[in-house]
Known about the structure:
Helices cover 45% and strands 20% of the residues. It is α/β, with parallel strands linked by helices and 142 residues long. The protein has a five-stranded parallel sheet, sandwiched between helices. Strand 3 (96-100), helix 4 and strand 4 form a beta-alpha-beta unit. Helix 2 packs parallel to helix 3.
Amino acid sequence: MNRTLKFLAWLLGSFLLCSVALAQDKVVYHIDNAETQATKALRNVRNHLDVAPDTKIIVVAHAEGIDFLMEGAKDRKNPDIDYASLVSALKARGVRFEVCELTLRNRNLKKDQFIMDADFTPSGVVRIAQLQSREHYAYIKP
């Protein structure tokens, strides 16, 4: 009996150690205004990955936040900033960019107006809530 308890304790300890070793930070960045948030958000995401490269990051955009993911989008204050190249570089590092389909319908936009690196989600707000509550993502709004 004593041996069985020791084995179970070892097994549980091994499982917990593996769980901790496999744990990964997960973060959702929320953008609802591209003009005031996009450049800052992309810089934050880049810096985040520079310090914690194993972090799983999803950027969810809705309302006016989707504008930076449209073809040809540039920062209004600094037209030298081409969002597509910044997004592409982050996508190559594992970041996912999701556009709210409700916003598309409300603004009469089509998916083909967006850069190839953009993915789509039925509702940006619902997606953020699910990532936080079900998948335990930390929430950041730049």
